[in-house]
Amino acid sequence: MTEPAGPSPQDPDLTAAGPVVNDRQGQGSAPQRAPDAVDSWRRVHFISPLVRGWIALVAILYFVGREWLEGLFDPGTRGRGPLPEGVGLLLAAAVLLGIVLLVAAAFFVSWYFTRYQVTDEHVRVHSGVLFRQQRQARLDRVQAIDVIQPLLARIFGLAELKFEVADAGESAVRLAFLKLDDATRLRATILARAAGVETDPEHPENIVEAPEREVVALKPGRVIGAAVLSGSTIVLVVGATSVFVLGVVLDAPFVATSFIPLAIGVGGAYWSALSTGYNFRAATSPDGIRMRYGLLDTRSQTVPPGRVQALGIVQSPLWRTKGWYRVSVNVAGYGLAASNDGQARATLLPVGTREEVLQILALVLPDPGTERPVELFSAGMTGRDDVEGFRTTPRRARWLAPLAWRRNGFAVTSTALLMRSGVLWRQLVVVPHERTQSLSIEQGPLDRRFRVSSLQFQTTPGPVTPRVLQADSGTAWELFHGQAARAAEARRRSAPEQWMKPVVEPTRSSEPGETMPEAPRYVPDQTREGAPHELR
Amino acid sequence: MRSEPIDPSGLEWSRVSPKYLRVRVLGWLLGSLIWLVIASVPLVLRLTGVWEPFPPGWLAWSLPALVLVIALWRGVLLPRQVAAIGYAERDDDLLVRQGVFFQRTMVVPYGRMQYVDIAVGPLQRAFGICTLKLHTASPATNALIPGLPTEEGTRLREQLSARGESRLAGL
């Protein structure tokens, strides 16, 4: 038996019904009138059923066409065409047309019954014909907004809008498809209302997208180079070598064909690296971090301030020669998607130099909480031992991690915790103090023998796993209690959900022509060159 | 309760109900019996002569013996495992600890709790205890307090909810 926990620990809107109110009802019940209807109900663009349904149409044509082709070459039916005896070509065409029309009608009806509305506080979507669904999500619970243009939609100038809340999985609201202008305007409206920006009461429609300043732009050469030097290449080389050696040793003739699956896999990895990294641009705006990328399908993502739960910087072995890093993040709305798309969404920088990584870090963590951010984060990315105040695995436990013990470590600033690990795949994880969900300290029998403990930090699902491995037990306990206290303190001071509302002055208005101030940037500490960084 | 090297100093741990040990022992007896019966099948078949040549006598005997040894070892550990479960309410967070060989202590801030579950199975209901589980936005948060007396579980749930509300935080 499971019962809910009486009064909710969260504000009533989040826990009483969740950030998304999802109302499924049977046939016949009338949609309710919105109490705070500001905007009228709208439908997505008229041709979106076609764009969404084209795959279904292609599939039908494919199967029919294949049957027909096979019929042509089949010796039994050769010369008689693909049709069974006594069925005219006209009838077959009519049946095909009927199926196509039926599919088109289904998409059209689904389109007709899907309507959306954005009010001051909510975004609502009504959909379904027989089983109606009414969904309502609170705007200030937004975790991320994506505007996606698949290739076909791009041809028609359409875009899909995805509104993510913290349910770690499927999008709360998906509007496919809108005109690109409408989609960007809707995104601006949602973000402005979620941020609590004061709008012109006479022209509430007159919302201008927040200004932005480009921070990082990747050239195609870099993206191609990154793909070539990625782990896929290692797989390719190792795989090719082993296949070749096996072929020579066994004197088998299957060498060439066994390359095919390998080539497909590696080629796919190259392609996804290229298509998701191509034309990558990151920008800062009052609405948060903006990312744009894509070769055929283009995506534009917005992550509002304070929505990054954890950030990971990884360097694969071959990238070390070029000094490149990859930055990925845990954002509550993105969840743990294993697909290429999901990985790309959670990537804040597909490939970047140390300076670019620091620039991205400065956007996520405007206040690094240390006077020597450049030195500290550099030590986290490439350094080892206790440089810049990192606390590593004690020497007595070096056999538990013979390679990595000098890298495994952590450092604490007044705003974030840095966790460093890995020798071949160097990794640095940064967790802002106020984003710690819970943490646990663990010790196995072997750890106890060497007087070390490991810490696990639980964050929302995503590609980044923050943990401290094999720290000295005393230090680990100090961190455990210190971190619990720091997290509580940081939460008390943390920015509100509506990130624009209570700041001292409204930095954003609905007036056009406004410019975005300089992006935050970490500067190296010149005053104390070479001085050791104090652990705070 | 017994202090372990992993324990922080100056912290008062609350223990779970001693009835929980009885529930665990009952479960352990039942589980061990089932495993033992399964492991004895080859032996019985061998002794009755249904399976003649294949399982050598020593193998047929050693299988249930191994199961018995593992079951006894688990039974010996049970009291210590139950004794190792503890929780402590602090001002801002709840600490939960468990484990004998693999020890783990978890801290869950009240403001991070999304909801609290109380689960009671038929055996637990017979003994008047329940299991409390905390959920945060992270599915990896595995904060479970088994074997709470029912009234203590209810009190803790209300307490946690009230404290969570007074320490509002989003994600």
UniProtKB/TrEMBL annotation, chain B:
InterPro entries: YdbS-like_PH. It holds the Pfam family bPH_2. Keywords: Membrane, Transmembrane, Transmembrane helix. The chain crosses the membrane at residues 25-45, 57-77. It comes from the Bacteria. Residues 84-160 form the YdbS-like PH domain. PANTHER family: TRANSMEMBRANE PROTEIN-RELATED, UPF0699 TRANSMEMBRANE PROTEIN YDBS. This is YdbS-like PH domain-containing protein.
